[in-house]
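Quick one - first record:
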Amino acid sequence: MRTERTLTRLDRVFTRLDREPERPAHIDVPKMSRHRVALFAGTLAFYLAIVWLVVITSWLVRLDWQVMFFRPYQQWAGIHWFVDYYVVLGQRGPTAVMVAAWLGWRSWRQHTLRPLLTLGTSLLLLNITVGAAKIGMGRLGPHYATAIGSNEMGLGGDIFPSGHTANAVVTWGILAYLASTPAARRWLSALSAVVSLGVGMATVYLGTHWLSDVLLGWAAGLLILLALPWFEPLMARAEAGIFDLRDRWRARRGSTAPAPLSPVEAPVLLKPCPAGQNETAARSVRAPVYLTPGPHTARSERTPVTPVGSRRPPQSDRVTRGTASPTRPLTGG
């Protein structure tokens, strides 16, 4: 009697993973609405205002110096070990690997490259915009400051805006941007905001960034997330091009591959031949004379026969066993 094996929870998980769904057609692709354009314009104005306040060495620069002299890492030394680990959530390498692994799995399951293309586009924009601003303004960090009260601009530094903060905003905010439901988008937006806020404050606590660096990093990351809908058509064309290349490669590979062998050969159709050809074919396939069956004889009476003939010399006086031998003529003497 055959009994079915009871599936465990792990078996059910793998069974569910094996069922690859079709490519979803209800994905809500964000569009550049008026609300988003207004947020983008407001964030850009905030970005430019921070840069201007630092350039003119305003009250924001004085606040930077006050926070630096406060030395948070000495005031709250007990949480230093936790902040050292928490700030990793803003580093490019670890966060990009974790998020890319998750989005890669989503791309495989949903049969679409949009999650990975969105992540790649956002990181490319982050490197271009934040990297250009860092190099262009060349601000030194608190640990390398040269003059008390100065803005430390144009001295070959690379900390304005904060790369950790901008990377945290973009990397974790991309999960909210790609959320499939409004509820998930709200929860992930709140989570990414808390994580990026914590990463920015962690850099200020450790003394690696000014407070204004963090403010500008938040604005830089938010600008990238708000501008992503402008790049959606480009990502859609890139995805279509990649899939087209894949299909052509598969077709070329299939045309050059040898045809698979069929386990059952196709039947051969026999054409009827004229009567004369049938008789000729019958003669050609007739067994040789030396293999043609004849009358049954005793073993002792048989002559060994080979394809080249008998190996015994002819004997005219040999008599078959069981028959009377002919009388020989008597010779007188």
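second record:
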Amino acid sequence: MPINAPSATAERVGGVPGAQAHALADVTASDGALRRFLHGLPGVDAVGLEARAASLGTRSIKTTSKAYAIDLAISMVDLTTLEGADTPGKVRALGAKAVHPDPTDPATPATAAVCVYPDMVAVAKEAVVGSSVKVASVATAFPAGRAALSVKLADVREAVAAGADEIDMVIDRGAFLAGHYLKVYDEIVAVREACGASARLKVIFETGELSTYDNIRRASWLGMLAGADFIKTSTGKVAVNATPANTLLMLEAVRDFRAQTGVQVGVKPAGGIRTSKDAIKFLVLVNETVGGDWLDNHWFRFGASSLLNDLLMQRQKLATGRYSGPDYVTVD
């Protein structure tokens, strides 16, 4: 599977891909219709979900496959800095690392993207110019999402105007948990429109705040119906972020959505994935749940800041037989 796949070309109408709008348009015709659809989704067997995620996490990976998996995981990283202390210098350094993760080995793949706040997009764009690395920007009053829609859309437009290739938006979890599904849907559609034709949209659910697996399934379908290019677990700013179980559930959702609509949507687990062992477990989930069509950075990403260093150390160990340690990789 090539590291860079072509994007989906289905035209979206009102959040729903144009080729399938007739099949799903009635689902979002009213708040009541959307509620009936979302609450009509099959309930999640929590015990079964967690057992399957745990079982897949025990799969052993042989040396050759492990080397491939590590390179694939590196190519899927959204190298991220989302701190109040971010400076242009830090973002430039992050961009340089994304383009050349291991300067001593030019065969090391570049990461998928760098992810920054909107005011740092122009700096990041300059840092990765001429490379395959995309610039992603969080938006819509990240991480809480507590702002007026006009403010959220201004946030998105600023990032896109500065050159963002991807927008990572947060949903209004308060509205979702209160059952105001159409409000959340309309906001995602509005953000999708603000992204224009130049930026892909990742919709963040903050799964740790949604309380139940049933809510995660409903949020996944809501995001996809509204036009998400990716659905994403978390901001990385709360106690519970990406887990094998919630990621497995979202993978099942994108699989079922494509089966019904013919439209493929990506998945991005974010937060708490720190080691190569963790990353490979997630790749096994992808392979066993949705298959090779998603084993590409166009359709699967890791939101991480520290994961890349461990991937690089494990890559060096496979190449040299020695574990070089953290002193041999740059500190993010």
